[in-house]
């Protein structure tokens, strides 16, 4: 079972993954918590370079590095965990590339689709939880929590495009996406998320 979390920066994905992971582990599930960009030794090393503030990265180069990281991540972490019957909680996955490189950087969506299919070997999330907050709120949270990375430093219109893109992706695939109001309190969001995840696990007989 692959559950992905998506949303703009500072939307609360990481916070909710931590809570959900502890909750599921407490219920006896084997849980693998991972993230993109990163998730492997190779990917984490590339992440540091790719997000480094001030690094000059061309949009197509950026796309291809995200895809290289994903290929490694799927092969080394996600596929083995799924084959082992684990619940995989992944902080960002395929949808982030449509939202950021497709709608944000305006790279052809067909190219992204082809590359995503290649590097994921056809695996798709069973459930995608979209944490929905305004770009202003997300960036404010991020600015308060840590230094901004290279992509976070993009102007507000870029982040607003990404937010709209996520909403569009969710509308196009309502069976897979579950949209959560990320402006609620942390515990309130966790309750909603764990109820949804519980129902989905049950529907898959897990
Ligand atoms: N990217 C891409 O372009 N293409 C791709 O294909 C992929 C990624 C896979 C790094 O991603 C960048 O990679 C990202 C997209 C790009 N760029 N940007 N911009 P990342 O996921 O590693 O980094 P991030 O987007 O900045 O996420 P984050 O920092 O991990 O934020 P978050 O996980 O959504 O939020 P958080 O860490 O849980 O919370 C942020 C702060 O808000 C923290 O202080 C929390 O305590 C606080 N918080 C959390 N929830 C709440 C609530 N409910 N109320 C109030 N405060 C809260």
SS element count, helices: 8
What is the terminal-to-terminal distance? 8 Å
Query: Helix/strand/pairing class, anyone?
Result: alpha/beta
Number of domains: 1
Order of helices and strands: EHEHHEHHEHHEH
**pLDDT below 50 for ≥5 consecutive residues: which ranges?**
none
CATH topology: Rossmann fold
Helical percentage:
55-70%
The ligands bound in this entry are:
ligand Z5A
Strand content: 5-15%
Write down how many β-strands occur, each being a DSSP E stretch of 2 or more residues. Answer: 5
CATH superfamily heading: P-loop containing nucleotide triphosphate hydrolases
Strand order of the largest sheet: 2-3-1-4-5
The CATH architecture comes to 3-Layer(aba) Sandwich
Over all CA atoms, what is the radius of gyration? 16 Å
CATH secondary-structure class:
Alpha Beta
Notable features of this structure?
Rossmann fold; binds ligand Z5A; 206 residues; 5-stranded parallel sheet; alpha/beta; 8 helices
Fold blueprint:
Layout: E1 2-7, H1 13-26, E2 31-35, H2 41-50, H3 59-83, E3 87-91, H4 94-104, H5 109-120, E4 127-132, H6 135-145, H7 156-172, E5 177-181, H8 186-203
Parallel strand pairs: 1-3, 1-4, 2-3, 4-5
Helix pairs in contact: 1-8, 2-3, 3-5, 4-5, 4-7
This protein binds ligand Z5A.
Description:
The model has no long low-confidence stretch (mean pLDDT 96). The protein has a 5-stranded parallel beta sheet with strand order 2-3-1-4-5, with helices on both faces. The chain is built from 8 helices and 5 strands; from the N terminus they run βαβααβααβααβα. The chain is of the alpha/beta class. It has a single domain (2-203), classed as Rossmann fold (3-Layer(aba) Sandwich). It binds ligand Z5A. Ligand Z5A is lined by residues 7, 9-15, 36-37, 51, 66, 91-92, 96-97, 100-101, 141-142, 145, 151-152, 185-186, 189.
């Amino acid at each position: 079972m692959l559950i992905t979390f998506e949303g703009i920066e500072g939307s609360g994905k990481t916070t909710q993954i931590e809570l959900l992971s502890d909750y599921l582990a407490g219920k006896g599930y084997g849980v693998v918590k991972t993230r993109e960009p990163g998730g492997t030794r190779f990917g984490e090393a590339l992440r540091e370079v790719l997000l480094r503030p001030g690094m000059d990265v061309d949009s197509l180069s950026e796309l291809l590095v995200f895809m290289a990281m994903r290929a490694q991540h799927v092969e080394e972490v996600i596929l083995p965990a799924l084959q082992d019957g684990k619940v995989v909680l992944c902080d960002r996955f395929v949808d982030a590339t449509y939202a950021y490189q497709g709608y944000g950087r305006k790279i052809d969506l067909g190219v992204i689709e082809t590359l995503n299919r290649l590097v994921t070997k056809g695996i798709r999330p069973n459930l995608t939880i979209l944490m929905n907050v305004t770009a202003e709120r997300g960036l404010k949270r991020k600015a308060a929590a840590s230094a901004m990375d290279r992509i976070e430093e993009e102007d507000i219109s870029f982040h607003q495009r990404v937010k709209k893109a996520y909403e569009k992706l969710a509308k196009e695939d309502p069976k897979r996406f579950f949209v959560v109001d990320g402006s609620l309190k942390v515990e309130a969001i966790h309750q909603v998320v764990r109820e949804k995840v519980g129902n989905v696990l049950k529907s898959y007989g897990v």
